[in-house]
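Batch manifest, entry 17 of 40.
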Amino acid sequence: MEKVFAGDIRLLTSPSMLIELEEVLSRTKFGFAKPQLQRVVSLIIRTSEVIQPKTKINFVKEDPDDNKVLECAVDGNAEYIITGDRHLLKIKKYGNIKITNPSSFLRKRIK
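Output type: structure tokens
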């Protein structure tokens, strides 16, 4: 997120991704109180380019909800998908979009 705040990378999201983010972060294991959760989601919205994907992709069979990430990346002309999601990481590349985890991405960018 520091790279996003510094303007070094562009963060893309979509309405459906924001809904899923809020649902996931609402889980008790993350320990967010409602006001904290709202601040986190608000911060993501303020620092992101919210894409309204028009492309429909049905590529990730193991977890079809992950297709929304590919749709956002394609319509947002992303170079990378930076994720911890194992289904997306298994793909490694979709078209010209590289899929990597945060630590690998940062290691490549620091060099």
